From TrEMBL:
InterPro entries: AA_synth_put, BB2672. This is Amino acid synthesis family protein. Pfam families: AA_synth. It comes from Litorisediminicola beolgyonensis. It comes from the Bacteria. Gene3D superfamilies: BB2672.
Length: 193
């Protein structure tokens, strides 16, 4: 079982002060981590791929810890998401291997968060961009936290690589007013409401 071959790590932080309306008291912050790794299955169909999730777990934890640090601590994080871009010698299913290592890493660090971590994935070449969905960490139906952060880099993923992403945010969209379940009304029993 080979280790994860990491080529690059890219971290990004956004501060959103307004979207055309009045500035909030505290700007919304979103942060992303993007790991460029070798795809051990590139160029061939491999029936047994699940084993690769285990070596990805430490990478997920490293990325999640850095995002928590960039956003000022776990108590600041209210939203999260994950995604993968698989290089053109791979297949979409290779990106699905990131679901458990990426999702559980964030949930572990965010005080037993309840909501499923939303996800997206695609196959693409260098420069491909990915909109990573974000939802509230404890209740997926909190509409104010439905958001996304774009990730990508000009030189990845190469054909035999994958770009694995984690994203966190500190709150709702800056001018949220679409209604629905409010964060203050979360019961947190099932990860939905």
């Amino acid at each position: 079982m080979p280790d994860v071959q990491l080529r690059r790590m890219i971290y990004s932080v956004e501060e959103i002060f307004h979207e055309g309306g009045p500035p909030p008291e505290t700007p919304l912050r979103r942060a992303s981590a993007l790991a460029i790794v070798a795809n051990p299955f590139a160029g061939r169909y491999e029936p047994d791929i699940q084993w690769f999730m285990e070596p990805l777990k430490p990478l997920g934890l490293t990325m999640a810890r850095k995002l928590v640090e960039l956003l000022g601590g776990a108590d600041q994080v209210q939203g999260y998401g994950k995604g993968a871009i698989v290089g053109t010698d791979g297949e979409l299913e290779h990106g699905a291997l990131w679901h458990a290592p990426g999702g559980y890493a964030m949930r572990e660090l965010l005080h037993d968060s309840k909501a499923i971590v939303p996800s997206t994935k695609k196959v693409g070449g260098p420069g491909t961009r990915l909109d990573v969905p974000i939802t509230h960490i404890n209740a997926s139906y909190v509409r104010s936290h439905f958001d996304a952060m774009e990730v990508g880099t000009p030189d990845a993923p190469r054909a035999g690589e994958m770009a694995l992403a984690l994203v966190m945010s500190t709150g709702a969209r800056v001018h949220d007013r679409a209604g629905g379940l409010a964060a203050k009304d979360i019961k947190g029993e099932d990860g939905l409401r």
